[in-house]
Amino acid sequence: MRRFLAGLAVAGLLLAGCQGAGADPAAGAGAPVQGGKLTWGVETEPITFNPHQYAQAKARLLVWNSFDALLTHDDKGGYLPWLASSYSVSADGLTYTFKLRDDVTFHDGEKFDAAAVKANLDQLQVPGYAPSVLATQLKHFKDAVVADATTIEIHLNQPDVLILDFFASPQGAQIAPKSLKSPNLKAGGPDVVGTGPFILDRYTKGQEVHYKRNPDYKWAPSNAGHQGPAYLDEVTYRFLGESSVRVGALTSGQVDVAEGIPATEQESVKADPNLTFSRSLNSGTAYNYYFNQTRAPFDDIRVRKAFRDAVDVDAVLRGVYRGTATRAWSILSPSGQFYDPSLEKTYGNNPADANALLDEAGWSAKDADGFRTKDGKRLTARIVLSAPYVRDKRDILAQAVQAAVKQTAGIDLQVKIVDAGTATDAINKNEFEVFDNSRADTDAGAALSLILPKGAPINRHGYNSPEIDQLVAQAGATGDVAKRKEIYVKLQKLLTDNATLLPLYAPADQVAAQKKVGGLGFEPTAGVPGSAYNVWIGN
Questions:
Q1: Is it the case that residue 28 has pLDDT exceeding 70?
Q2: What one-character DSSP code corresponds to residue 5?
């Protein structure tokens, strides 16, 4: 199960390879205990509880509480059966046949079968329902044929190995067919149900969401940590956007677990004998600033390179994250198997070059405020941050970058933090020069398919070329991991040479808890916090 720990011992040890510190997370919790209620403070309130609409990495732990997928990832990026019992691929790569478990039921009592899988795929084809899924993860999907109750054939128009990642992703999670007819389908909630180990039974907007154990759950995958129903009777997630409030709630005992522990609080949490702390890098892409090349000033590569050279990223990260952030040098997270380490220290933090490039580009004058100008116009760039996606003090980070480019190169970076609707409107109207993004996809290819090809859903940088489109397509058509890495290394170099983006840091998640809590961990491969399935409260 993607949300579970690979190779997790029943004793509840953390996933091997996670970068933890502080007390042993298993200490004090003892052996797994059945029953109990847990309260968990989370940084981000989901925009939606419908897994097909999933877009927030911070919401994954909630998605996997109440929904399951056909497959899950192991700790090496491979696939394991979940609601499927097995799968096979035709020699031409155009047909994927899934054999399904016959003992699974949805929370509403409906039986899970091949017809249910087809109903979910049919819903994803509905215009306007999940356009980004349709344009990327299912772009080569042709049709689904129900061979019998426990067999479904997925036909593609052309080979696409990323279809497996879709069937192991939140967007590929299974919703009960009756729920697909709900008037609240897009928003999700108590009347949009899955097959997961918990049932979402109460949601109070702006405050909390409550889950109760699914007593019938018996279809966890082999790397789930245990089998059968979840240990906890109930789990409540409280939406505590302010980091100081989350940590305060944890240290005072108001919550049992908190995620999103800021750099300013990590040392004190690690030193607290009553708490445990663990950390894991996310997979997918790094947190990057992308330059909008479809309009001035970043249609000029000299200005893009100058902005990149104007920022001492290491110094900015130290100032904001106090040494806890992992520097990024590529579009991809350094924790992923396709990351190219040869790009490290090949650019950036070069004020002399930044200023020379801007002079060359004609931005040689300065106004009374010290900002560069050309033809009487200030060198201005706008970044619009969507509030529901602001995590890890990214608002403070933006202010630090803003100060750096002003002081070093006279660039006026204007930072705007707005609601989701306003941010979407700005993007649609092309009223921005910089946009920020990170992806927690388990397969980096899924993220690059969303960001790089011409017309891709989040290709807001406007860097298009037949070579990029061809490379992305080639990587998606082969299952050869070495070949895919070769292709993704080429793509990373192309983006670096073009100064398409300024990589900043590799997103990480931190989880702290009372010592009585056991079974906490991170999703295999993805590196984001796991759901509550394997969590218990010791006596």
A1: no
A2: P
